[in-house]
Write a structure and sequence with these properties.
The chain is an alpha+beta fold. A six-stranded antiparallel beta sheet has the order 1-3-4-11-6-9, with helices on both faces. Strands 2-5-10-7-8 form a five-stranded antiparallel beta sheet.
């Protein structure tokens, strides 16, 4: 994980503070419309770092309202899940007809592909994990947005892990990078709890372990059911059974995550040859990358790279 970049309204004149802040959150997280709601001069600080396309931010600021509108969604092609962990103050998150009240130790998830609103009545602080939606199964966010996962249940363990990860990012970025794949697996499980109101089953925990192992070994072209089963301490039959609820077979999971990695490399490394992107994403060559990318994205890697802004 890269060393975090930081921004503060202390770096600009007071009359420009909120305009500066609005630009920072739009450039760092997602495009939103924001307005300050307090009477005191506005202040805000944001620290952010990314690894493999996953962003981890810490935010502390004054009262404000934030809206992700249909117009802004249409202008913003990237698709994310935003995990908001409240570490100070109080806030409201609204999406899909639900409202989550966030207090310290409580978290919720928002989907950047649909409108949402955030209200911060006073000074607050949050840890925000921004995850590309392609890193998670398509069904994982269904019913789980703007649902409170409070500190009294298993969701509190996930919130505590993410808050600790943010602290680790500031102190030892390389350790945070090694822990980040675990955060993605925990997020998948937490979304399942939020959507169904249940604690994890043995199958869901096995599924989390499988997804984490696949993410960690994507670059290995020999990754298959046998390797996954051995690495997760499961039988091949158990691997297939654990993934059955997703409706996404293991081969499709591996292909989707490899294409997601290739897409990030195409975006972030425009100088990297397709053969190198294929190798770093676990494909056997540029031709295999081309076929998989077209099947998942509906276009070729070259066309995708050429059309990126």
């Amino acid at each position: 994980m890269e060393a975090p970049s930081s921004w503060s309204t202390e770096d600009v004149a007071a009359p420009d503070a909120f305009g500066y802040w609005s630009d920072v959150i739009c450039d760092t997280l997602v495009q939103v419309a924001a307005r300050a709601t307090g009477e005191a001069p506005f202040t805000g600080r944001l620290s952010h770092a990314t690894v493999d396309g996953v962003g981890l931010s810490t935010v502390a600021s004054g009262p404000q309202e934030v809206a992700r509108t249909k117009r802004l969604i249409a202008r913003d092609p990237d698709e994310y899940l935003l995990v908001n962990v409240q570490t100070g103050g109080r806030s409201l998150a609204q999406q899909d007809g639900r409202t989550a009240t966030l207090e310290p130790g409580t978290m919720t998830v928002l989907d950047s592909t649909r409108p949402y609103r955030l209200e911060f009545a006073g000074a607050f602080s949050q840890v925000i994990l921004r995850v590309p939606r392609t890193l998670l199964p398509a069904r994982v966010a269904a019913g789980g947005t703007a649902v409170e996962l409070d500190g009294r249940g298993p969701g509190g363990l996930v919130a505590e892990f993410l808050a600790g990860l943010a602290r680790q990012q500031r102190e030892e970025p390389e350790v945070a990078a090694a822990l980040l794949p675990h955060a993605i697996g925990l997020l998948e499980t937490a979304l399942g709890w939020a959507a169904r109101g249940t604690t994890p089953t043995s199958a869901s925990l096995s599924r989390q372990r499988i997804h984490r192992f696949v993410r960690q070994h994507l670059a290995d072209p020999a990754l298959d059911a046998g390797a996954v089963a051995a690495g997760c301490g499961l039988s091949r039959r158990s691997v297939f059974r654990a993934l059955a609820d997703d409706g996404e077979p293991l081969t499709a999971l591996i292909r989707r995550l490899r294409v997601a990695r290739a897409r990030r490399l195409l975006r972030d490394r425009p100088d990297l040859p397709l053969a190198a992107i294929a190798a770093q994403s676990g494909f056997g060559g540029a031709a295999q990358l081309h076929r998989a990318f077209r099947a998942v994205e509906g276009t070729t890697p070259g066309t995708y790279r050429a059309n990126r802004p």
